[in-house]
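Read as amino acids, tokens; as here:

___
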Amino acid sequence: MRQLDITCCGQHEVCEKDLLRVGEDIEYYEDEELDRFRGQTSYSEEEVEEFREVLYTMRTDEVAGWVHSLELRRVPLPDELKDEVLLIVGEQTQ
């Protein structure tokens, strides 16, 4: 399985990137249109906003599953959203 390109900072007892690992089944979050970005390495501002719109229209407890679904579909999460995703997922574990 290919993991999200977020490096562990080593400052947490439990690595935050491990919180993103969930099951192996692909689940769609009304985001089928993002499949067109499969294998893409960079995004325009408008494309990043498409991902952001999906991110902020889902329940916070769905975010880790959504990111994992993107990984399984080989749709890279834009770098601009990785910190936001980690904050949301981190809040779910507190």
The mean pLDDT is 82. The chain has three helices and no strands.
